[in-house]
């Protein structure tokens, strides 16, 4: 298959993943209005296993999902990821779709300093500057939700939602660092399956806790429509994961990563069509700053990757 054709296929799968994840987020916001978040997280994780195992069976990799080198590392990633999913879903239920999506873009920016301090990766001044500018964009998005000065007209639920959405982004950044460690020893099938299984298990614990802690909420028996929505939350999330995995199979990360920001376009469209929401000037301005900073970080990663490859080629003895 020609290189351009493979690249185009990778980009197409990446765009399909953004549509699937945005559809999942929309369904989460619909379900989260009446269903406890813990129950939504359980359905997101449990029913995502259906498309996951279909993909693994198609690729003859089912047994790879049960092979581990360090289960403890999987547990760390699972706990962090589950906390991030729970926080992100709370944000989705309390904020407009475009707002929560824009705040989630803080995660890739946070990965840069975490990679420096935890993984010891070299980060130069260009990326530090881009991250600093990106965080200014995040602050612009959060500003109206923080009830600062004359902007004290936002309901308390939106301030809470903004904090949970930001907490979800922080957890997502830590989870990314953990995944970078896992890929050195673990198969992709094991990483994805264990994460989904652990999230479902941890979410299931909120069932009895909801009886004692009102903030978690008691699980309810869904109506047929609610049950369908909950199943589709998991299926669309699982499809998004599959499309994302396939995109990296066909194209380089540096090529397809910027297309992740198309999710903002879908979020604005879905937010307007389903919830009649329109993004505020703060979301548009801050989101633009964050997206531009994120793309610059990706571009710098690509340039540094080319430089490292060239240096390895020069230093490798020939003949």
TrEMBL record:
Keywords assigned: Membrane, Transmembrane, Transmembrane helix
One GO term describing the cellular component: membrane
Domain EamA as annotated: residue spans: 9-142, 160-298
Subcellular locations according to the entry: Membrane
Presence of keyword Transmembrane: yes
Stored InterPro entries: EamA_dom, EmrE-like
Protein species of origin: Phreatobacter cathodiphilus
Transmembrane segments: 12-31, 37-58, 79-96, 102-119, 126-146, 158-177, 189-207, 227-248, 255-275, 281-299
Protein name, UniProt field: EamA family transporter
Membrane topology: Multi-pass membrane protein
UniProt family annotation: Belongs to the drug/metabolite transporter (DMT) superfamily. 10 TMS drug/metabolite exporter (DME) (TC 2.A.7.3) family.
């Amino acid at each position: 298959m020609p290189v351009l054709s493979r690249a185009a296929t990778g980009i197409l799968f990446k765009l399909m993943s953004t549509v699937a994840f945005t559809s999942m987020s929309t369904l989460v916001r619909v379900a989260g209005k009446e269903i406890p978040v813990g129950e939504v997280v359980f359905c997101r994780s449990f029913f995502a296993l259906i498309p996951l195992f279909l993909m693994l069976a198609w690729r003859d990799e089912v047994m790879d999902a049960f092979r581990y080198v360090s289960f403890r590392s999987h547990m760390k990633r699972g706990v962090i990821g589950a906390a991030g999913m729970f926080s992100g879903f709370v944000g989705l239920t309390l904020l407009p779709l475009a707002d929560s999506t824009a705040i989630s873009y803080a995660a890739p920016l946070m990965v840069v300093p975490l990679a420096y301090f935890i993984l010891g990766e070299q980060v130069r001044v260009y990326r530090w500057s881009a991250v600093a500018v990106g965080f200014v964009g995040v602050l612009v998005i959060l500003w109206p939700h923080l009830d600062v000065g004359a902007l004290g007209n936002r309901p308390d639920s939106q301030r809470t939602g903004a904090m949970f959405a930001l907490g979800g982004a922080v957890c997502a950044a830590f989870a990314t660092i953990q995944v970078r460690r896992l890929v050195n020893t673990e198969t992709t099938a094991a990483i994805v399956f264990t994460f989904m299984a652990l999230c479902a298990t941890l979410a299931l614990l909120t069932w009895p806790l909801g009886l004692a802690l009102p903030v978690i909420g008691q699980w309810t028996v869904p109506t047929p429509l609610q049950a369908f929505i909950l199943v589709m939350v998991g299926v669309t999330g699982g499809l998004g994961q599959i499309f994302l995995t396939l995109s990296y199979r066909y194209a380089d990360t540096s090529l397809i990563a910027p297309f992740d920001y198309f999710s903002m376009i879908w979020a604005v469209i879905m937010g307007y069509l389903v919830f009649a929401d329109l993004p505020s000037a703060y979301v548009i301005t801050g989101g633009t700053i964050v997206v531009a900073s994120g793309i610059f970080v990706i571009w710098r990663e690509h340039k540094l990757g080319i430089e490292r490859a060239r240096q390895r080629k020069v230093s490798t003895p020939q003949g």
